[in-house]
Write a structure and sequence with these properties.
Blueprint (H helix, E strand, L loop, with lengths): L1 H9 L6 H25 L8 H13 L3 H20 L5 H21 L10 H21 L7 H12 L3 H20 L3 H22 L4 E7 L3 H11 L5 E6 L6 E10 L3 H11 L4 E6 L11 H5 L1
Antiparallel strand pairs: 1-3, 1-4, 2-3
Helix pairs in contact: 2-5, 2-6, 3-4, 3-8, 4-5, 4-7, 6-9, 7-8, 8-9, 10-11
């Protein structure tokens, strides 16, 4: 009952602002994803894993429309996923893979089989295809939907084999890429395909996490109070003081945690060095900062 109430709390009220944003993101995402399949993947026999990878192979071997071929796989797979895994795949997932199929075949019908005419520039197709499809899938994920296909297969296999879902997804997509290699008898196809899958994954992460120039900084020093004052009064930044203990000496120490823009990192390092040149400083990428002084959680999810 608690999970059911939680799921309801995550759902968007029909025709509210969030509802329009969510479904708008889903429609735009499926259209951009379809652009990737129609413009970059299908004409150059690039197999980006998933159900569309299989559909592209069938298209070139037997002439089946890519979108309709994927739809014929996605519909029974998702229904099977509903039966075996429960109501994990909602209405948006069905809408997502139906729209992707319609957009993909519609673009081919209107613009032709090879609208960009890149000729032998398969590398360009694999790179830009990965970027375009990564943006599309990222928007679909932000709408809390799924593109269906191989993630359904991976979820089912993960349940019965106990292998982690991410590993299963890589296995499934790699097997589909190798099918393309066997069918087309071209060793370059899996190389271009894996490059596309890699780029696509990175772009999906960027779309989901956003772009940020901020860095998270952890500082451990015997002169933590002086460094704190420098950060607050000279850099005009806030932060948090954490209680720490040395692993070997077990000496109690204060740990300073703060977030600064990367352009201020050299200044911060120089200031820390002047106060305590033996300070232990860790700087990591902060892909997204939510909370007071930054973008609020409400803005993020709305």
């Amino acid at each position: 009952m608690a999970n059911e109430n939680f799921s309801k709390s995550l759902s968007d009220k029909p025709f509210s602002r969030n509802w329009f944003v969510s479904y708008g993101s889903l429609v735009i995402g499926t259209f951009i994803l379809a652009l990737g399949y129609a413009f970059f993947m299908t004409p150059y026999k690039i197999i980006p894993g998933g159900i569309y990878g299989i559909s592209i192979v069938l298209h070139h071997k037997f002439g089946f429309p890519v979108g309709m071929g994927a739809l014929c796989f996605n519909l029974p797979l998702t229904l099977l996923g509903l039966k075996l895994l429960g109501p994990r795949f909602g209405v948006k997932t069905f809408i997502g893979f139906i729209l992707t199929a319609l957009f993909t075949d519609g673009l081919v019908l209107v613009l032709g089989e090879n609208p960009l005419q890149l000729q032998d520039e398969v590398l360009l197709a694999s790179i830009f295809g990965g970027v375009v499809m990564g943006i599309g899938v990222g928007l679909i994920f932000r709408a809390r939907a799924s593109s269906g296909g191989s993630d359904v297969i991976a979820s089912i296999l993960s349940k019965y084999t106990k292998i982690p879902l991410g590993t299963q997804l890589m296995i499934v997509d790699s097997c589909i890429v190798l099918v393309g290699f066997v069918v087309f008898q071209d060793w370059k196809i899996p190389l271009y395909s894996w490059l596309t899958i890699f780029i696509m994954g990175k772009v999906i992460d960027m779309v989901l996490r956003g772009f940020s120039d901020d860095k998270a900084v952890f500082i451990i020093s015997d002169k933590a109070e002086e460094i704190r004052q420098m950060i607050v009064y000279e850099l005009k930044r806030g932060g948090t003081l954490l209680d720490g203990k040395g692993m070997f000496s077990k000496t109690e120490k204060e740990v300073i945690f703060t977030v600064v823009n990367r352009r201020y990192i050299p200044d911060l390092q120089q200031m820390i060095s002047k106060i305590d040149d033996k300070a232990f400083v860790t700087i990591v990428d902060a892909y997204e900062i939510l909370g007071e002084g930054f973008k609020s959680l409400r803005e993020k999810v709305s």
